[in-house]
Amino acid sequence: QVQLVESGGGLVQPGDSLRLSCAASGRTFSSYAMGWFRQAPGKEREFVAAISRSGGSTHYVDSVKGRFTISRDNAKNTVYLQMNSLNPEDTAVYYCAARWLFQDNVVVTGGDYSYWGQGTQVTVSS
To answer: Exposed/middle/buried for 98, CB within 10 Å: 0-12, 13-18, 19+?
Structure first.
């Protein structure tokens, strides 16, 4: 069982940056592939970024490539999402997700994740 707690959301202006954090419980964090998803009002949940167990592989949705960076610190049981050059289209509730995985691969499909956090709101508005 893994519990995930996101933090770092808030209200920012276009062009600003935010760093989201997701703290995981448990002693086997390094055995989990991690991902970030988001859901805007009236829209379906969308994949944002994923990172493998070791952090050696990452994957992003096209709309955030070059602006967002996913990283992890296995010693701190935490995964991060650094978001730069934010725009109003990035407004959403952001969720982190975890899946135990034997291989050091990324997981990009929401349905393949086993554990989810409660979400943190990111609002980009002038």
So the answer is: buried
d(CA 98, CA 30): 11
Residue type, 111: G
- For residues 34 and 53, give the distance between their C-alpha atoms in angstroms, rounded to a whole number: 7
pLDDT per position as a tens digit, 42-67: 999 999 999 999 999 999 999 999 99
Residue with the two structure tokens 């002038």: 126
- The residues facing 44 across adjacent strands are none
Cβ atoms within 10 Å of 58's Cβ, excluding its own: 15
Amino acid identity of 53? Answer: R
- pLDDT on residue 56: 97
User: CA angle, corner 50, sides to 84 and 57, nearest 5?
Assistant: 100
At 1 the pLDDT is: 83
